[in-house]
Amino acid sequence: MLIDLTGKRFGKLIVIERDFAEREKNKTPHWKCICDCGIVKSVSGKSLRGGFTKFCQNCIDVAFKGKRFDRLVVIKKTEEYCPTQGYYWECKCDCGNICFAPRNRLENGQKKSCGCMQKDGHTALRHGMSKTRIWRAWQNMFVRCKYECSIGYSIYGGRGITVCEEWQEFEPFYDWALSNGYEEHLTIDRIDVNGNYEPSNCRWATRIEQQRNKRNNFMITHNDETKCLAEWADILGFNYKTIWQRMSKGKTFIEAISK
Length: 259
Description:
Order of helices and strands: EEHEEHHEEEEHHHHEEHEEHHH
Distance between the termini: 48 Å
Oligomer: single chain
Strand content: 15-25%
Shape: flat
Strand order of the largest sheet: 1-2-3-4
C-alpha cells in the first residue's frame, strides 16, 4: 500500500503532492517537493524515505561555491557540461588566473591549481598517492564532515564533527597514520565518538572494533572497565544473544553471566 507523504519533511524538502507525470516515466511513485530555497523538484518516495535525497541540486551547488581546493577557490557553476564528468566550475587560482574544472576533479584532489603548480616545479599531487587507500581515508573524512550532500553528513558534520587544522594537508595525516599502526585492512576510528578527527582522538581499527565503538552500543561497566556488551561476551566466553536475552528479562549483568 502506498504511504501518503504529503506534508512530510525530509531534510530541506517538504512534500507537496504526488507527481503522476514522473510516475508514468519512471514506473515508481514520485512526489513533488519544495525545498527551503524555493525550488520545486520531483523525487521518488524511495529516495525520500531512505534519506538519499534531502536537498535540491541548487542547495548543493550553493554550498559548493566559495570552497577552497588547495590553490583554487570555486566561483560559480558554468553551462559547460560533460556526460562523464558533469558540469564544469569556474575557479580562481591564488595566482590570479581563472580556470575551469568538473566538481569531481576538485573534490578528489586531481585539480589543485590553474597549472601554476607545475610551473613552480610542483606536481599536481606532490605525494603521488591519490589512488591509494590511505588517501581515500583522508578524503572521506572531509566529505562526511563538510558536505551536506554526503550520505554520512548527518552523523558527522551535522553533529559538529570536524577535521583538525593539522590534518588539512595530506602529508601530516600520512605521517601520523604510518606512526600509529596503519595497515591496509584497518579503518580510521574516533576513540571518543563525539570528538573530532585529530591525532589524540583517532586510531586504526578493524571493522569489528569500529562496530563496538558506536554511539548506540550497549555499554557495560564491569571490574572498573567499560566495554560494549558484544566485547564482554567475547572476553568472558559467553554467547552474546544469551546475555542479552537474560538482561532483557530484568537480570543484571552479573546475574546474566552466572552459569
